[in-house]
Amino acid sequence: MDLPIVVGVDGSQPSLRAADWAADEAALRGAPLRLVHASVWERYEGPVLDAGPDEPSERTLIEDIVRAAEHRARLRRPGVRITAEVLPEEPEYTLVRESRAALAVVLGSRGRSGVAEALRGSVSLAVAG
User: For the chain, which terminus, N or C, has the lower number of CB atoms within 10 Å?
Assistant: First the structure.
């Protein structure tokens, strides 16, 4: 079984750069690439309600972000086997779990201020922890 290079994606420029780097590394190592987005927005915003006919749901928006990152990786490295998944879980927990069966885990950096970092926490720090 080939261990994948796992990359957390959220649609931000840092996460897209991380996905680019991970795709390049997967090609170099002959490894598959696994794009993962995990979030539990319901906990912070309440249950996700179906959006109106003119507005996509939160889940649809996230799936679009992940599909776009997958498409970008396929264009960049067409020979790499790529999978993508959206998981309704805490990002830190999900990425640590994914790391147990991965060649490497790649994450971008938001570059938040110290105050914002302390209030929200850092996925990268928790995963590297």
Answer: N
Domain count, the chain: 1
Query: Which structural domain, as residue segments, surrounds residue 98?
Result: 5-128
pLDDT tens-digit series, residues 44-91:
555 555 556 677 778 888 999 999 999 999 999 999 999 999 999 999
Nearest to 9 by CA among 77, 118, 95, 79: 95
Q: How far apart are the C-alpha atoms of 47 and 70, rounded to whole Å?
A: 27
How far apart are the C-alpha atoms of 112 and 123, rounded to whole Å?
12
CATH number of the domain where residue 69 is located: 3.40.50.620
Q: How is residue 49 written in tokens?
A: 């309600």
Decide which of 99 and 40 is more confident. 99
pTM: 0.82
Q: Tokens 């490295």, residue?
A: 77
Cβ count near 93 (within 10 Å): 14
Tokens 């679009």, residue located: 64
Residues 9 and 66: beta-carbon distance below 8 Å: yes
